[in-house]
Amino acid sequence: MKGALRCLPSAAAAGPIPPATENLSYSMLLPGGAYCAGLARDAIRTLVNRHGLGELSETAVLAASELVSAAYRFTPDREMVLRVRWQFDALRIVLYDQHPAHPTPAAADECRDRRSRSMWLLTAAVDEHGGDWGLAPVLTPGGGTKSWALLHR
């Protein structure tokens, strides 16, 4: 064989990559129904435990559930993207929803305030792990919201 491909390792020789904290990085599309909070809880619990972060499991499950539940309350029955990742010594759980863009900045601020107030349980849980959480508009013409939670060991 000629060229650069000769120097690539064989995929069969390397074998599967075992789940480790450093390679925790998953994304999933959720269909947007009320039941998606349960799907998110199950997925996060499995992934966090499998990647050696069991001490964060309960808080991560709660965080994912709260993020999905808020997205459902503010944008029912619309697809969501859930991401979980270990990066810079923290567990990052991010949810993108399809909340429509608001016609005025004042309406957007009011909506963001309402959503923030609904996240009181997430705030308490994240504070216990010295973490943080937040909301930000997604900069697309159709709108959308990015909500996230960050947890430390």
Instruction: Enumerate the strands of the largest sheet in spatial order, edge to edge or round the barrel.
Output: 1-2-3-5-4
What's the helical proportion of residues?
Answer: 25-40%
Structural class: alpha+beta
Number of discrete helical segments? 5
User: Over all CA atoms, what is the radius of gyration?
Assistant: 18 Å
Question: Tell me about the biggest sheet?
Answer: 5 strands, antiparallel
- Poorly predicted ranges: none
**How far apart are the first and last residues' alpha carbons, in Å?**
47 Å
Q: Count the strands?
A: 5
- Report mean pLDDT, rounded to a whole number: 89
Q: So what's the overall shape?
A: globular
Beta-strand percentage?
Answer: 25-35%
Instruction: Give the H and E element order.
Output: HEHHEEHHEE
What are the defining features of this structure?
153 residues; five-stranded antiparallel β-sheet; 5 helices; 5 strands; 26% strand
Structure overview:
This protein has 153 residues and is an alpha+beta fold. Helices cover 39% and strands 26% of the residues. A five-stranded antiparallel beta sheet has the order 1-2-3-5-4, covered by helices on one side. β2 (80-87) and β3 form a beta hairpin. The protein starts with 10 loop residues before the first helix and ends with a strand.
